[in-house]
Amino acid sequence: MKRVETLVEDKYYQEYLRRNSEAEMQPKFCQHDFQHHLAVARITYILILEHNDLNYFIKDSGLSGKLAAKEIIFAAGLTHDIGKWKEYQCGIDHASYGGRLAREILPRALFNRNEIDIICRAIYEHRNISRDMSFLGERLHRADNLSRICSHCEHRFQCPKIKNKEISITNFEY
Ligand SMILES: [Fe+2]
User: Fold this and answer.
1) pTM score over 0.90
2) Ligand 1 center to residue 106 CA distance, Å?
3) In a domain, 113, yes or no
């Protein structure tokens, strides 16, 4: 996955993950580090494969084939929270801000216009479930929730996200 490798080596990509880590020094915050991004990328891919939806995704999105589809899925997973640090700074929605940041990075990893639109829309949509979500946005949202095993987290009784029912206590599935 050459383009995905180029993406994760991008100096701005690495800088945004560094800013996330810097903002999440206190243990009360879920980490939005490289491991979280990679877990979400892999689970999104598993969800699509598990339901035999890869060919549908390729056709419906006008993609060149399986490699392009896999790279797009991984690129979405690996960038979906890169705007999180900005949300800590000024309250802006990290999903829409992250989509804007990704739009600047992705052309340098040689994703084309159509592919960038698909990835950035999924990033924009990943935070909340809604009726008219894109195919990839809906899978990314589900993968994000499945990526954290909150039932084993030592902070689960103090977690504001669990209290506000933003996330449920996820059991181990992937
Ligand atoms: Fe997020």
Assistant:
1) yes
2) 18
3) yes
User: Tens digits of per-residue pLDDT, 12-55?
Assistant: 999 999 999 999 987 667 889 999 999 999 999 999 999 999 99
Expressed in angstroms and rounded, the spacing between residue 95 Cα and the centre of ligand 1 is: 6
What distance in angstroms lies between residue 127's CA and the mean position of ligand 1's atoms?
A: 5
* Chain position carrying tokens 């689960």: 156
* Contacts of residue 20, Cβ cutoff 8 Å, sequence gap at least 6: 31, 32, 33, 81, 82, 84, 85
Q: Can you give the residue range of the structural domain that contains 35?
A: 2-163
CATH code of residue 98: 1.10.3210
- Closest Cα partner for 78 from 135, 6, 155? 6
Identify whether 22 is part of a domain. Answer: yes
- Centre of ligand 1 to C-alpha 125, Å, is 9
Mean pLDDT, the chain, integer: 93
